[in-house]
Design a protein that fits this description.
Layout lengths: L18 E6 L28 E5 H7 L4 H6 L4 E2 L17 E2 L7 E5 L2 E2 L20 E8 L3 H4 L6 E7 L5 E14 L3 H9 L8 E17 L5 E12 L2 E2 L9 E2 L5 E2 L9 E2 L1 H6 L33 E5 L2 E4 L12 E3 L2 E15 L2 E18 L16 E3 L7 H7 L10 E3 L1 E2 L9 E21 L2 E22 L1 H8 L1 E3 L11 E3 H4 L19 H7 E22 L15 E17 L25 E22 L2 E15 L4 E14 L2 E12 L3 H5 L3 E6 L13 H6 L17 E6 L8 E12 L7 E13 L2 E2 L3 H11 L2 H4 L2 E2 L13 E3 L3 E2 L3 E3 L1
Parallel strand pairs: 5-8, 35-40
Antiparallel strand pairs: 1-37, 2-7, 3-4, 5-6, 7-8, 9-10, 10-11, 11-19, 12-18, 13-14, 15-16, 15-23, 16-17, 19-20, 20-24, 21-22, 24-25, 25-28, 26-27, 28-29, 29-30, 30-31, 31-32, 32-33, 33-36, 34-35, 36-37, 37-42, 38-41, 39-40
Length: 837
C-alpha cells in the first residue's frame, strides 16, 4: 500500500551530487561468464560497466506487490513520475518513465536491448503498459547518455527490460492490492468544510487492483530451443479526488479553496462587469448592438451610468454575482480505472552453433477512462460573427431579466445582447476521455558464431500502436449557440403555440433543437441536455520499423591485446536502419468551429485538434571497443577503456555524431573506480516535426489589457500597443488568449554531455554485497520545445527584445484574442539548455 496514503503522490529525495545504492544479490565475482550489460554491445565478465546501472529483479515486483511496471520503476530515485494511471486531466492513457526529471522523451526504453514503439500519437514516450510484469526477468536502468550504443533519445538514460525467454513449465501469478487512507488533516478539512464542499470519509479503502498472468514454457526435446508464452489480465478501480481531504477542493495560497470562474448556476457578464467592475469608464466598455473591442458603448436612454452586468440566476431573476466559483477538483480521477489484456511469446531455436533463430510477439489491449470536471460554456468567443447572443424576445427570460440585459441598454424585442456565459454543465455530468490503446510488437532474428572468435546478430523489428479516443459528454458549441436563440412557437407541428422553441427549429433548419434554459434555476431539461451534449472521436497510429546487424568479437588472434592484460580487445560494429511514423485522424467535432475560429465545436477542448501525419527514417553505423590495459597485476586488478562512436543520417536532412569514452580501474578485486563521458543526441520526433500549425488557447493574462494595465505604456509599446490603445484593450473574460502552435521541420537535434564517476565496493568478506556511489552531471543543449506563450509575452513587454516581440501579433484594437490572427507564436523550436546532477 504505497501511493494515496498520507499524500497522493510520491516525493523523491536525492543527494545534490551523488546517488548511493546498496544491493544484496549475486556479486560480480560470482558471475564469471560473459554477459551483456546495458549501455554496451560487448559481452564482459562482470555486471559492472563504466556507466552507473541499477538492476531490479523479478523478486522486486513480488516484494513490492505492484501490478504496474511504472510503479516499480517510479519508486527508483532516478525516476520521476510523469504520465501514468494517476493523471486524469491531460492523460494520454499511457505510462512512461522519466529518468532524472529530464522528460520521458529523453529516456530510451528497450525490451531485450531493442526499441519499443512510441506509446501513443499524443504521448511519444514508450508505454510501459505493453510490458507484462511477470515476464520481466530484470530491469536495468542506466544513467546518462547512451546514443553511441543505441541511437537517438538516450539523453537522460536507458531503461532496459530483460524478459524471461527460457521458462519451462506452467506458472500463474496473481496480485491483489488496494489503498487505505486516513483523511485526518484537520487544516485541509476545515477549509473544505468552510467553503461548503463535501468532506471525504475519514477512513477509506479503495483503488482495488487485481492482476493475473499465466506463463507456459517448454524446451525442445533436443534441448536446443524454447518457447515461452504468456497471457495476462489486469483490472484497476478508480479513485476520485473527492475521496481525499487534500484534494476535495482546489487549494490556493494560504490554504484557501479556489476554483473556476464558470459556475453551476451560470454566470452572465459583459466586458464591463467582468473586467473592470464598478466605477469603470462607460466610454471604454463594449456592448451591443454591433460591438467590437475598443469601440465606445452607445448612450443609454434610462440615464443610468453603465456599470456593466455580472449576474447569476436566482429563481427566475438575475442577481449580482458575489464571488461564486466552481470547485472542479473532486470529480477528477486520482487513479484512473483501467482494464488491460496482454499476450505474447518468446521463442528461440539453435539450428547449429552458427545460427540460432529467435523471435517474439507481444500484444496489448489497454482501456482507461480519464474523467475530469463537467464541460461548460467557458465564456465562449468564436470570432468572427459567432459571438454568443441572447435575443431580447426570448420567452425564457423573465421581465426582470429582459430589463437587466436589454431594456436598460436601449435594446428592443428585435435586438440581441452579447453575453459572455460561464456555466458548468453540472446537469450533464463529468467529461470522459475513453482511451484505448492496442499495440503489438514483433521481432525476428538470427545470431550465431562466424568463426575465429566472432559472433553476429541480425534482427528485424516492427511495432504498431493504435489509439482510439472517444471524448464523451462534451458541450457542443454549435448546438449550444442554436439553443440560446429561443422564440415563441408559431408552428403547430412543433407543439403548443406560444411555447418556447429554438428559432432554428421554427425556421426548419434544425428541428431537433431544444431550448437550453439556463436563465432559471433547474430549468434545463433532459431533452435540452441531450441536444447540446456531443462527443468527439479520433484515432491514430504510431509505427516503428527497424533492421539491425552487428558483429562482435575480439582482436586476440590479430595481436590486439595489451601485454599487461589477460583479455584481448573487444570490438562490436554494425549498421541499423529505422523508420518511425505517426498519424492522427480527428473527426469533425475536433475541427475549428467555423473557418476562422480558435475553438473546436467541443467547448471543453479549447483549441481544435487537427490531423497530423509524418514519418522519417535514419541509417546508422556504429562501432564500440572494450580495451583491457592492465589486469591481475599489483595495484591493477583491472584497468580498461571503453570507446564508442555512432554516425546517423536522417531523411530530414540531419546527421549526427555521438560517442563515448569510459575508463575503469580496480586497484584490488574488492574495489573499482569508474568514469565516463558520453555525447548523446535526440532528434525531433514526428509530433515535434510534423504537427499542424493551428490556433490554440493558453491560460494567462495580457499585462497591457484593462483600464489599469500592469505594465507601462512604454513597455506595452514593445508588444505593439499604441498610445491610443493603452488602457482601452479588453482582457479576455475567461483569461484565455490565442497562441499559434505547430511543428517545425528545421529543428536541430538536442545534444547532451554526460559526465559520471564513481566507485563500486564488492567485499569478499561479505559475499553478495555490492555498494556503489556515483556522481553524474547531464547537460542538454538545443532543447526542443516551446518557450511558452505567456513567457514570450512577458519577456517582450519587459525587455523589448525583438527575439520575443516578433512573436507577438496584436489585432487592430490591440487585442491578443479577438481575432484568429491575434496571438502569440509559440511554435516548436530549439529553446536553450537543461542541466541536472
Amino acid at each position: 500500500m504505497n501511493a494515496f496514503g498520507r499524500i497522493a503522490g510520491r516525493a523523491s529525495l536525492m543527494a545534490s551530487a551523488a546517488a548511493i545504492a546498496v544491493s544484496f544479490g549475486a556479486s560480480a565475482q560470482d558471475a564469471p561468464e560473459r554477459i551483456l550489460v546495458t549501455g554496451t554491445r560487448i559481452p564482459q565478465a562482470n555486471l559492472v560497466g563504466v556507466s552507473p546501472v541499477t538492476a531490479l529483479g523479478q523478486e522486486d515486483f513480488q516484494l513490492q506487490g505492484v501490478t504496474r511496471v511504472e510503479d516499480l520503476v517510479n519508486n527508483l530515485p532516478q525516476a520521476f513520475a510523469l504520465q501514468g494511471s494517476q493523471i486524469s486531466n491531460g492523460a494520454t492513457g499511457t505510462a512512461t518513465v522519466n529518468l532524472r526529471g529530464l522528460g520521458s522523451v529523453r529516456t530510451l526504453v528497450l525490451i531485450n536491448g531493442r526499441r519499443m514503439p512510441a506509446g501513443s500519437p499524443f504521448g511519444i514516450a514508450p508505454d510501459l503498459n505493453q510490458i507484462p510484469s511477470s515476464l520481466v526477468q530484470r530491469v536495468e536502468v542506466l544513467t546518462g547518455g547512451a546514443s553511441a550504443t543505441y541511437g537517438s533519445d538516450a539523453l537522460a538514460g536507458v531503461v532496459n527490460f530483460i524478459m524471461l525467454d527460457d521458462f519451462e513449465g506452467v506458472r500463474i501469478d496473481s496480485t491483489y492490492s488496494f489503498y487505505q487512507h486516513e483523511n485526518d488533516h484537520e487544516e485541509f478539512r476545515s477549509v473544505v468544510a468552510g467553503a461548503g464542499f463535501p468532506l471525504a470519509e475519514e477512513t477509506v479503502w479503495d483503488g482495488y487492483q487485481f492482476s493475473v498472468t499465466g506463463v507456459m514454457g517448454a524446451n525442445t526435446p533436443d534441448g536446443r530451443g524454447n518457447v515461452t508464452g504468456y497471457v495476462g489480465y489486469r483490472s484497476i478501480d478508480p479513485v476520485s479526488q473527492a475521496d481525499r481531504d487534500l484534494s476535495a477542493c482546489q487549494f490556493g495560497q494560504a490554504y484557501s479553496c479556489v476554483g473556476s470562474t464558470t459556475i453551476p448556476e451560470g454566470r452572465f457578464t459583459d466586458f464591463g462587469a467582468f473586467n473592470f467592475g464598478p466605477g469603470f469608464d462607460p466610454a471604454l466598455d463594449v456592448s451591443s448592438p454591433n460591438p467590437t473591442p475598443g469601440n465606445p458603448r452607445l448612450p443609454f436612454p434610462d440615464g443610468i451610468p453603465d456599470l456593466g452586468f455580472d449576474f447569476i440566476p436566482s429563481g427566475t431573476n438575475f442577481v449580482p454575482r458575489a464571488g461564486t466559483t466552481y470547485n472542479f477538483g473532486p470529480v477528477n480521477f486520482y487513479q484512473r480505472p483501467d482494464e488491460r489484456y496482454t499476450a505474447g511469446l518468446f521463442a528461440r531455436y539453435e539450428i547449429n552453433r552458427h545460427a540460432e533463430a529467435y523471435g517474439s510477439f507481444m500484444f496489448m489491449d489497454d482501456r482507461t477512462d480519464a474523467q475530469i470536471a463537467p464541460s461548460g460554456t467557458f465564456f465562449l468567443w468564436n470570432p468572427p460573427g459567432t459571438l454568443p447572443t441572447i435575443n431580447c424576445s426570448n420567452p425564457l427570460l423573465s421581465a426582470q431579466q429582459v430589463n437587466e440585459i436589454c431594456t436598460r441598454y436601449g435594446l428592443g424585442p428585435t435586438d440581441s445582447q452579447v453575453v459572455y456565459i460561464g456555466k458548468r454543465n453540472v446537469e450533464g455530468g463529468p467529461r470522459n476521455s475513453d482511451l484505448r490503446h492496442t499495440s503489438y510488437r514483433i521481432t525476428a532474428g538470427v545470431r550465431g558464431e562466424l568463426g575465429g572468435g566472432w559472433d553476429y546478430d541480425i534482427y528485424g523489428l516492427y511495432g504498431n500502436v493504435h489509439l482510439a479516443n472517444n471524448f464523451q459528454n462534451e458541450l457542443q458549441v454549435s448546438r449550444f449557440t442554436n439553443a440560446l436563440t429561443v422564440v415563441p412557437n408559431t408552428n403547430p407541428a412543433l407543439g403548443a403555440l406560444g411555447a418556447p422553441v429554438c428559432a432554428i427549429a421554427l425556421a426548419g433548419t434544425d428541428p431537433s433543437c431544444v431550448p437550453y434554459d439556463l436563465f432559471s434555476e433547474g430549468g434545463i431539461s433532459q431533452a435540452a441536455l441531450n441536444y447540446v451534449s456531443g462527443s468527439g472521436f479520433l484515432d491514430g497510429n504510431t509505427t516503428i520499423q527497424s533492421v539491425s546487424g552487428a558483429i562482435t568479437g575480439d582482436l586476440g588472434q590479430y595481436g590486439g591485446q595489451s601485454p599487461y592484460a589477460d583479455e584481448a580487445i573487444g570490438l562490436a560494429f554494425g549498421i541499423e536502419y529505422r523508420r518511425e511514423s505517426l498519424e492522427i485522424r480527428p473527426d469533425q467535432a475536433f475541427a475549428p468551429f467555423g473557418s476562422a475560429s480558435t475553438n473546436s465545436d467541443l467547448a471543453g477542448q479549447g483549441g481544435p485538434t487537427l490531423p497530423v501525419a509524418g514519418s522519417f527514417d535514419v541509417a546508422e553505423f556504429f562501432i564500440e571497443s572494450r580495451i583491457p590495459l592492465v589486469q591481475n597485476r599489483p595495484g591493477f586488478s583491472q584497468l580498461g577503456l571503453d570507446l564508442g562512436y555512432r554516425y546517423s543520417d536522417y531523411s530530414t536532412g540531419t546527421d549526427t555524431d555521438t560517442y563515448k569514452l569510459g575508463a575503469d580501474w580496480a586497484p584490488v578485486e574488492d574495489l573499482r573506480f569508474r568514469a565516463s563521458f558520453q555525447r548523446a543526441v535526440r532528434v525531433a520526433n514526428v509530433v515535434e516535426l510534423f504537427s499542424t500549425f493551428q490556433v490554440a488557447l493558453f491560460n494567462g493574462s495580457d499585462p497591457c489589457a484593462g483600464t489599469a494595465p500592469s505594465s507601462t505604456l512604454a513597455q506595452c509599446q514593445n508588444s505593439g500597443v499604441t498610445a491610443g490603445q493603452y488602457g482601452v484593450i479588453a482582457p479576455n473574460p475567461a483569461g484565455q488568449y490565442n497562441q499559434f502552435t505547430g511543428g517545425s521541420a528545421t529543428l536541430n537535434p538536442e545534444s547532451s554531455d554526460t559526465i559520471s564517476f564513481g566507485a563500486v565496493f564488492s567485499p569478499r568478506f561479505a559475499p553478495g554485497l555490492n555498494v556503489t556511489v556515483d556522481y553524474f552531471n547531464i547537460t542538454v543543449e538545443d532543447l526542443i520545445g516551446t518557450v511558452g506563450a505567456q513567457t514570450i509575452l512577458n519577456q517582450c513587454v519587459l525587455s523589448g527584445d525583438p527575439q520575443f516581440c516578433s512573436l507577438v501579433n496584436r489585432s487592430a484594437s490591440g487585442s491578443l484574442w479577438s481575432t484568429p490572427i491575434a496571438g502569440v507564436s509559440n511554435l516548436n523550436l530549439n529553446t536553450g539548455s537543461l542541466e541536472t546532477s
